[in-house]
Amino acid sequence: MKRLLLLAGAGEARAVAQGLADVGAAAVASLEGSARFLSGLALPTRHGGFGGAAGFERYLDEQEIAAVLDVTHPFAEEISARTAASCAARGLPYALLWRPAWQPDVGDDWVALENEAAAAAHIPAGSTVFVATGRRGLAGFANLRNCEVIARRIAEAAPEPFPFAGGRYLASVAPFSVAEEEALFRQLGVDWLVVKNAGGEGARPKLHAARNLGLKVGMIARPAPPEGVTLLATVEEALDWARAHG
Predict the structure, then answer these.
(1) Per the domain annotation, does 10 fall within a domain?
(2) What is the pLDDT of residue 37?
(3) Number of structural domains found in the chain
(4) Which of 87, 88, 150, 224 has the maximum number of C-beta atoms within 10 A of its C-beta?
């Protein structure tokens, strides 16, 4: 039976999965290991990677996938590029949920960064830096000069050493309100907040807290989406596309 494949990784994937389940769509979800917060989707779900492009293409063929809806994280550029290329090679419909990026507002003090390593050109030595970019890219901040670098990790995650000297993890349990983020930033003496411009609502409390406290924000630009693919801005658009191609 032909099915739609939902690649889940962004927060919107939960609502998309629920919407597909509500209408009885023939669909299956795939959840990468780092997106544990999305466990319990309303669709049959496979967990883990595919084993590269060859493994992914084998899965498409064996499972008779008719279309792929990509709702992975905006910074999962390798996954999206591979998926778009594999679908194009097979003539399969492919669409990417591409939520709008954040834009600075009155009172924001943002510095645009190309990547993690670029932060060192802007953050003065001796600063306390709260990094909210995820653990995978932390090593890119190793060139910060004599800074205290603090990164949040999920409280349930197994403890692990920070990737470089001068940094530490802060175990926390989400979600966090603006007031909670403000109190935390004051307690830690944060001078800079560094985030990825993923858009969406998840990190907004941090940005509002930084604005209220007058903190500098290093905003890492998101990668461009694969060229020529269908981009969808909302859950509603994603569900409409899925219904048309399921």
Answers:
(1) yes
(2) 64
(3) 2
(4) 87
Is residue 45 located within the same domain as residue 85? yes
Whether 105 maps to a domain, the answer reads no
- Name residue, tokens 């020529």: 228
Domain with 159 in it: 110-220
Q: What global pTM score does this model have?
A: 0.89
* 160 and 187 assigned to the same domain: yes
Angle in degrees, CA 143, 151, 221, rounded to 5 = 65
> Residue 71 CB: number of other CB atoms within 10 A?
27
> In the sheet where 128-132 sits, what is the strand order?
110-113, 216-220, 192-196, 128-132, 148-154, 167-172
Query: Strand, coil or helix: what is 197?
Result: coil
Pairing of strands 230-232, 27-31: unpaired
| Same structural domain, 15 and 94 | yes
91-102 burial, b for 16+ CB within 10 Å, e for fewer? ebbbbbbbbeeb
Q: Do 114 and 29 lie in a common domain?
A: no
Low-confidence stretches of the chain (pLDDT < 70) are: 1, 33-37, 155-158
pLDDT value at residue 121: 96
